[in-house]
Structures are given as structure tokens and as C-alpha cells.
């Protein structure tokens, strides 16, 4: 008995494909039968695959993408990698003024990120504290 998969049949219901078919993951599917492995809704546009399962973009992101270190939301589009953590660009902010750090550029003082202006202010503040402590 031949146990190979008949690729002319729908990958979900294993019935013959009629006049409309979707091709994905090296199989044919009835359009409503190609569904997300997580939410089970039909995938009509872009999908991502992992471990031989198809996922809609949102479910794939929830399952596999890192979370933002600032807001803890799932990262879907653009992100920064800084201080060994992932961030939305809007969430990676200066430790002093809380403004987003342009292009993810930052300066460390006491292991905290600062923009250029706040960095100098923080260093001067630290120096003043040290000088007062030495007197």
C-alpha cells in the first residue's frame, strides 16, 4: 500500500480540490481550509511557518517573537536590541528625560542608558557627588 501523500487533495480535508485552490507549504488547500495552527482562522494573506505548522502573522509573533523590555508587548515590526534586551524604539528611552533614544544610540552611566545631553549632566552630577564626598 502506498502511504505517500496525494498532493492533489486538500491538505486539511483530504478531498479533491475543485476550481479554487490555495498553494502553501507544498500542498493544495481549499481556500477556507488553510488555517492558522493557533487561532484556527483561515489564512488569507501572509503566513509564517514553524515546525511544519502555518501561523497567521499575529499568532506567530505571539508564539515566537520576543517581548519588549519596556512595555512587555510582543515585538512585531521594528525593534532595537540594546542592553541584551529587545525594545520598541519608542520604549527604549533616556533614563533621565524619558525621551526615546534616537536610532537606539545611548551612553551608559551606572548601567543605565542616557541620551548625549543627559549623559553629560549625569556625569557632572556624579563628579560633584564624588568631590563633596572626598572633602
TrEMBL record:
LIM zinc-binding domain mapped to chain residues: 8-65, 66-126
GO terms under biological process: actin cytoskeleton organization; muscle structure development
GO CC annotation terms, alphabetical: adherens junction; filamentous actin; stress fiber
GO molecular function: actin binding; metal ion binding; muscle alpha-actinin binding
InterPro entries: PDZ-LIM_domain, Znf_LIM
Keywords: LIM domain, Metal-binding, Zinc
UniProt name for this protein: LIM zinc-binding domain-containing protein
Amino acid at each position: 500500500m502506498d502511504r505517500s501523500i496525494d498532493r492533489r487533495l486538500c491538505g486539511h480535508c483530504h478531498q479533491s480540490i475543485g476550481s479554487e485552490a490555495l498553494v502553501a507549504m507544498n500542498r493544495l488547500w481549499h481556500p477556507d481550509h488553510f488555517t492558522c495552527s493557533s487561532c484556527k482562522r483561515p489564512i488569507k494573506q501572509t503566513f509564517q511557518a514553524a515546525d511544519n505548522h502555518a501561523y497567521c502573522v499575529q499568532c506567530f509573533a505571539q508564539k515566537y517573537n520576543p517581548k519588549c523590555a519596556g512595555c512587555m508587548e510582543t515585538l512585531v515590526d521594528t525593534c532595537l536590541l540594546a542592553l541584551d534586551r529587545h525594545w520598541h524604539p519608542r520604549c527604549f528611552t533616556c533614563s533621565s528625560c524619558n525621551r526615546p533614544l534616537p536610532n537606539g544610540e545611548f551612553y551608559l552611566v551606572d548601567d543605565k542608558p542616557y541620551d548625549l545631553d543627559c549623559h553629560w549632566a549625569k556625569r557632572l552630577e556624579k563628579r560633584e557627588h564624588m568631590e563633596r564626598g572626598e572633602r
